[in-house]
Amino acid sequence: MSKKPTVADFFAGIGGIRLGFEQAGFDAVYSNEIDDFCGITYKENFGIDPKGDITKINAEELPDFDVFVGGFPCQAFSIAGRKLGFDDTRGTLFFDVARILKTKRPKAFLLENVKNLEGHEHGNTIKVILRALRAELDYNVSYAVLNAKDYGVPQNRERIYIVGFRKDVFDGMFPFPGPSKRSKLASILEKNVPLKYFISKKRLAGMKKHRARHEAMGHGFGYEVLDPEKTAKAIVVGGMGRERNLIKDCGSLRKHEGDAGFEAKNDECLRYLTPREYARLQGFPDSFKIPVSNAQAYKQFANSVAVPVIVAIAKEMRKELVSSKKQTD
Ligand SMILES: C[S@@+](CC[C@H](N)C(=O)[O-])C[C@H]1O[C@@H](n2cnc3c(N)ncnc32)[C@H](O)[C@@H]1O
Question: Would you say the pTM of this structure is higher than 0.85?
Answer without folding.
Answer: yes
